[in-house]
Design goal:
Elements (H helix, E strand, L loop, with lengths): L10 E13 L4 E12 L3 E5 L4 E7 L2 E2 L1 E5 L4 E5 L4 E12 L6 E9 L2 E9 L20 E8 L6 E4 L3 E5 L2 E4 L12 E4 L1 E7 L5 E7 L8 H18 L7 E7 L6 E2 L4 E5 L12 H16 L7 E3 L5 H19 L6 H15 L17 H4 L3 H35 L2 E3 L1 H12 L3 H9 L5 E8 L2 E8 L14 E2 L10 E2 L3 E6 H8 L14 E4 L1 H9 L6 H16 L9 H6 L6 H13 L9 H21 L9 H16 L3 H14 L11 H11 L3 H13 L3 H11 L5 H9 L12 H10 L4 H10 L1 H8 L7 H9 L3 H11 L9 H29 L1
Parallel strand pairs: 1-11, 17-18, 18-20, 21-22, 23-28
Antiparallel strand pairs: 1-2, 2-8, 3-7, 4-5, 4-8, 6-7, 9-10, 11-14, 12-15, 13-14, 16-17, 19-20, 23-24, 24-27, 25-26
Helix pairs in contact: 1-2, 1-3, 2-3, 3-6, 4-6, 4-11, 4-13, 6-7, 11-13, 13-15, 14-15, 16-17, 17-19, 18-19, 21-22, 21-24, 24-26, 25-26
């Protein structure tokens, strides 16, 4: 098996001079990179990928070298070890892979244009220039960039531009940083600027396909976020500027390049006149996530990719900490509960899941590390537990000391625990390593046994799992003082239950606030006590009950049918977090019914009963002064009502469409996708389909594009579904960055599932050639597995993906997703009769 070769041990770069000449017309790059550093051996290697090396020199003398394309290296023979300066001249192709240096395509007034940008994480800097492309190999960089420049175009990078000579843009020397954080872009851009209180220049850049006011929201958030972080971290922002750049083609969501953060347009640009609250919250959390990285990840970087969580988990928590401070009325921690927590709990319950800290043994495994449910969501929940344990004062002190000790260098997880532990006086490493090094999480069972209240912990699995006797140190967060603060045994007896109940005067609960990464299984008497006093529960409490019951039902520890009455109990809630959990669970019931069957009709009737009063209360139109909860809940209940085929709701949506059919982009952003989907599914004609597809091709509004994609993929018409699938490989219609959402939309549509499934099996090689090697590639497998729930589809999935399991970048995903489908099929077969009887 191919192993990772670490090059830094033999050659430690200290400074790079990188000269690049990019010709967009010919799609060629020619470059010269000069590296100053220390050679520990006279035989050194640097990384390259796809570079045609023309010369390697030291002190003007040619050096012997060979290019090892299989291991992405240039092996160089030096006269001796010690201080050395190596110059490498090379050429390369400018590709459309969205990795390395690549062009993004867009239109302005019907004219096709290009904006060239970069994406070097994880190990794609080597596609732009020869380097030791490892996080630990920090160095300083001088960039000089020439391109086939046209009037009005500009170039931007990590550092300010200091001069332009003979068409070459020269930038200030960077601070000491990792190769994957180097970034630049050039083309025809617009920008808006401001300054923080401490003098940091903040700018937002985008193509001129967008209205200038679409840059305003992100500019305001970025400025205030940097000010917040400088105060919270008690460490100044270390660069002179912070640019935020929207790229028309971008595979990831965003990337924290130091001083030049890059984003998908949909995650940076906002129409201030027509954007939903949920979209504003999403953009704000993405911007604050990337800016959290400017310290946590950029100033201090993980030593190797196995500690990727050090970057991502922390930034994922801090995005909520900062937005909560910047926009307290949003109650953004509720979004954490409805997005990060469910994702982590679902994924982490499957046997074979990676731990947060995971070893990397093969180059292809590096990109596979970026499991959003684990490295991002679970890791963030871990750190939320830490914050709750030590408090913000100790957190801030520990972080200040951590940055001071490791700035411009690298760190490991233990370095963070040491800093936070010293600030708090708590042995955090001992507590947190049980969460960091072990996959999965526990279910804490609470029961009254022989009159005593007892707790046990055991690893929780959805589906079959090998019980290895894992024990976690669990912050219990109980509402009874008699429960231990940290539950670190496999069982505990809290004493006589009747006495405890009388003394505390309230139902017994643990994980109050739902901040610790475990779920709770109460016995029947304890659960009924909680439900009998549900009017005393907070919104988070109610959400947590629905969340835990859903997971227990998924694992078949309780009957799915037994959960259905609880949905009705909470159906009148005005809280978005409750309604999010409620409808997540309600829509999960669809897997138990066949489309167009009597059972599905019963489910739709039940969904109508759940939502009808809320639809009556909220309606389609937003109201002046309404709560954030109502704004966020409206799309949930209208979606349920449309699924239920409530005639009044469908007719009202159609009427709104008719009134606005000449300005569909102007439909209210929070309900536009529902109105368009209703029209396509129930009142469709070919003209509307073609008009929307044409709008999709030409609009620059990313939110509108997303709504059109969701609407068109919901059609029932097989002819239209065939047209959609025929466009999957037409990048002028569907960009590769957006293909996954189109594919998922068709696959999730029962009328289109066969079209999409046939396409991915027939066109897998094309898909691999187009987006393979990208960290998003394996997610095509994930979204497929998330939809399939029949034995026939399971068999087809294993037949197709089984032979690909030896691909190191796909191995874990295929194994886990195979298990996930198999478990879901078993659940459906075992529970469908009871569920359908309850719905009848």
């Amino acid at each position: 098996m191919e192993q990772i070769q670490r090059l830094y041990s033999r050659f430690q770069p200290e400074h790079y001079d990188v000269y690049l000449d990019v010709n967009r017309e010919d799609k060629t790059i020619s470059g010269k990179t000069t590296i100053q550093g220390n050679a520990s051996d006279k035989n050194i290697s640097v990384h390259q990928k796809g570079l045609k090396v023309n010369a390697v020199k030291a002190d003007a003398d040619d050096l012997a070298y060979d290019v090892d394309d299989n291991n992405e290296m240039i092996n160089i023979q030096l006269p001796g070890s010690g201080a050395v300066e190596v110059s490498i001249e090379y050429t390369a192709a400018l590709t459309d892979s969205m990795m390395g240096i690549y062009p993004s395509y867009y239109e302005v007034n019907g004219e096709r244009k290009e904006l060239v940008g970069t994406q070097f994480e994880t190990n794609f800097a080597r596609q732009a220039f020869p380097c030791v492309d490892e996080p630990e190999a920090k160095a300083k960089f001088n960039l000089a960039i020439k391109f086939d420049e046209k009037p009005g175009e500009m170039a931007i990078s990590n550092m300010p531009e200091n001069r332009v000579e003979d068409g070459v843009h020269y930038f200030d020397e960077t601070v000491r940083m990792s190769t994957y954080l180097v970034a630049f872009a050039f083309g025809d851009m617009q920008s808006k600027m401001t300054k923080t209180k401490s003098g940091v220049k903040v700018g937002v850049f985008a193509t001129k396909a967008h209205k200038s006011n679409e840059l305003d929201f992100a500019l305001d958030i970025a400025k205030r976020a940097i000010e917040f972080y400088e105060d919270f971290y008690q460490t100044p922002y270390p660069l002179p500027h912070s640019w935020q750049l929207a790229l028309p083609d971008f595979s990831a969501g965003a990337m924290e390049n130091w001083g030049l953060v890059t984003y998908r347009e949909a995650l940076l640009l906002i129409d201030p006149d027509n954007t939903s609250l949920s979209t504003k919250q999403l953009v704000a959390t993405v911007v604050t996530h990337e800016l959290a990285h400017q310290w946590f990840g950029d100033l201090v970087t993980m030593k190797w990719w196995d500690d990727l969580w050090l970057n991502e988990s922390f930034a994922n928590m801090m995005e909520y900490v900062s937005v909560d401070a910047l926009e307290p009325d949003w109650h953004i921690w509720e979004t954490f509960q409805t997005s990060e927590a469910p994702a982590a709990l679902q994924r982490d319950a499957i046997d074979g899941v990676q731990s947060v800290h995971v070893q990397v043994n093969h180059p292809a495994e590096i990109d596979a590390l970026f499991d959003p449910a684990i490295v991002y969501a679970k890791g963030a929940r871990m750190l939320v537990m830490v914050r709750a344990l030590i408090g913000d004062d100790a957190l801030r002190t520990g972080l200040k000391n951590y940055f001071a000790a490791h700035k411009y260098n690298n760190a490991t997880g233990n370095d963070l625990w040491d800093a936070l532990g010293a600030a708090s006086g708590i042995d955090l490493a001992n507590i947190m390593n049980s969460w960091l090094e072990q996959p999965g999480y526990p279910v804490v069972s609470a029961m009254v046994d022989e009159g005593h209240l007892k707790l046990t912990q055991k690893q929780f699995f959805i589906g079959e799992g090998e019980d290895k006797g894992r024990i976690w140190q669990i912050p219990l967060n109980s509402n009874y003082d008699e429960a231990p603060e940290i539950f670190k045994d496999n069982h505990v007896d809290l004493g006589d239950y009747d006495e405890l109940r009388q003394k505390n005067g309230k139902p017994f609960r643990v994980n109050v606030g739902n901040n610790s990464h475990f779920i709770v299984k109460y016995d029947e008497s304890l659960l009924n006590d909680i439900l009998d006093h549900s009017d005393e529960l907070s919104s988070i409490d109610k959400m947590q009950i629905l969340q835990d019951l859903r997971l227990l039902a998924e694992s078949r520890q309780i009957s799915y049918a037994s959960v259905i009455p609880v949905l009705s109990k909470f159906a009148d809630s005005h809280s978005n977090v409750v309604n999010d959990a409620l409808y997540r669970l309600a829509f999960n019931l669809r897997k138990f019914v066949k489309p167009a069957s009597k059972e599905e009709k019963n489910l739709k009737h039940f969904m109508d009963q759940l939502s009808v009063d809320q639809v009556q209360r909220l309606g389609w139109d937003s109201k002046d002064g309404e709560s954030n909860d109502d704004q966020l809940t409206r799309p949930l209940i209208l979606h349920a009502s449309l699924y239920a085929e409530n005639e009044d709701t469908m007719d009202k949506a159609h009427a709104i469409f008719e009134d606005n059919k000449d300005d569909l982009i102007g439909l209210p952003a929070d309900t536009r996708v529902l109105i368009l989907s209703n029209e396509i599914r129930n009142f469709n004609d070919m003209d509307l389909f073609e008009d929307l597809l044409d709008d999709y091709r030409h609009t620059a509004d990313p939110s509108y594009k997303s709504d059109i994609a969701a609407a068109l993929t919901s059609t029932k018409d097989p002819k239209l579904l065939a047209i959609i699938v025929a466009n999957f490989e037409d990048s002028n219609t569907i960009k590769p960055q957006d293909l996954r959402s189109w594919f998922r939309g068709v696959l999730a549509n029962n009328d289109g599932q066969q079209f999409a499934w046939d396409w991915i099996r027939n066109e897998w090689q094309w898909l691999e050639d187009t987006v393979g090697g990208d960290m998003e590639f394996a997610s095509f497998i994930t979204v497929t597995a998330g939809i399939f729930h029949t034995r026939a589809r399971f068999d087809e999935f294993t037949e197709f993906f089984g032979p690909k399991v030896d691909n190191p970048g796909l191995t874990r995903e295929i194994k886990m997703d195979t298990k996930a489908i198999d478990t879901r099929v078993d659940l459906v077969e075992a529970e469908k009769q009871a569920v359908n009887d309850k719905l009848a």
